């Protein structure tokens, strides 16, 4: 290569790099200002006693906020409520979604209608659904107790009872979300090659054996994807308790994010709320990392 | 054998119809009730009538009386316009910013490209819910509280969208771009004149994903847009719930109105949405 040509290609490379960075810059700058910077600030606040009404009187208090979290009964309750919600919603919603996908994947007449029906709650926003179900769950004049009384089930307290409130929110959340994952499972089912089922038929496999040895392995990647997204979404529980129960009765539906919101926004204790947000972020990160590890191990 | 199959098929259908009822009845009840007076809503609750619209002569003021009342009680029109401004602002700027970033990562030979991709993917894990307080303080200091700028700008850059665009552009045939390069087209020109027009599906998918996510947004509009004039529909709906006594009919009408834009998006654009979802699902 002649000297001249190399210089030419070097400036060309430099120009390409410059253009590339111009393309990339707006996104990087915005992400830095509105995501990474607040993230850093959150860590900084968590070591201070930042109170929104006295922003200039802010001092470094070390780990005091984190020590406070350990003794905070409300935080503990919100934490376990969130864990309970997640641990129930994730398997139930995945099972329901997979069941629905298997049903509408059958070559039956009217399956488009059924698919649309099961998907329809997704079209309503979480806020709309939460308001609607609050009135459906109304113990004395709600639709659900009316329907249950037809089948002979006595009146249930639902959201007004500490024992039933979280389960009522769980039932509604599964109902609202399952149709969405059904669609993803359905796409996964349709990606499983027919010849695998035909081969299983020749070997004389039963329906159950085919499900276990052809369907389930064929859905592995998609299941992991759904598993991770539902888990993280469930951990961010906020809208349902905020609208339906305000965290009650007796704090039985208070979630982590809701608690952080109340402390930071209503009580304006940004320092302490930031410390809780740090804990929340770390938990989400750990869960994400564990799941990713599991995913790569299963693949490898 | 054949009889057994028929019985099984009937059982499957019964299960599917039962499930269809479970998934549909709240929606149907909401729409049916939005046309009734409160007395009728309660009277019908114990029977199938709960899921049927009222008889023609039964209601004073006609089927849309509750809708008229709902729009009168709260400025629903304003809230919906605000939600549309909010979502379309994010979509328009988001499509430009994220597609350019995705293209840069897919096609340009730039130093540290892998590092930046790693950073962008890492930000996917940060739950937006965890940073809303410091973000609020930042937006407050910028003087953006109760402005569209404050609602929209923090959410223009979207790691997920960048990732989707990058995946799409990676699969894009290189020959077209090389031919354009030989013809003397600059890289900026190639992107805007060749790539963008040929990438409508990915732009549609990202636009729909952004619309659905942000139409349903709750926490950020709640904290940053407290002023009535900029309130979004999801926040505005709470007015009907917090009334004492609750007017059920107008509330159902308001809930129905808030659902219509999403319904339209799904009815007309579902194809792109499902494509995009399954694409990411299988890629992950």
UniProtKB/TrEMBL annotation, chain A:
The chain crosses the membrane at residues 21-45, 83-104, 116-136, 169-189, 222-243, 270-290. It comes from the Bacteria. The keyword Transferase does not apply. The keyword Transport applies. It is a multi-pass membrane protein. InterPro entries: ABC_transporter_permease, MetI-like, MetI-like_sf. One of its GO terms (biological process) is transmembrane transport. Keywords: Cell membrane, Membrane, Transmembrane, Transmembrane helix, Transport. SUPFAM superfamilies: MetI-like (SSF161098). It is found in: Cell membrane. Residues 79-291 form the ABC transmembrane type-1 domain. Belongs to the binding-protein-dependent transport system permease family. This is Fructooligosaccharide transport system permease protein. It comes from Texcoconibacillus texcoconensis.
TrEMBL record, chain B:
Coiled coil: none annotated. Gene3D superfamilies: MetI-like (1.10.3720.10). Keywords: Cell membrane, Membrane, Transmembrane, Transmembrane helix, Transport. One of its GO terms (biological process) is transmembrane transport. Residues 80-269 form the ABC transmembrane type-1 domain. It is found in: Cell membrane. The keyword Phosphoprotein does not apply. Its main location: membrane. It is a multi-pass membrane protein. It holds the Pfam family BPD_transp_1. The chain crosses the membrane at residues 12-32, 84-106, 113-139, 151-169, 190-212, 248-269. InterPro entries: MetI-like (IPR000515), MetI-like_sf (IPR035906). GO terms for cellular component: plasma membrane. It comes from the Bacteria. The keyword Calcium does not apply. Belongs to the binding-protein-dependent transport system permease family. This is ABC-type glycerol-3-phosphate transport system permease component.
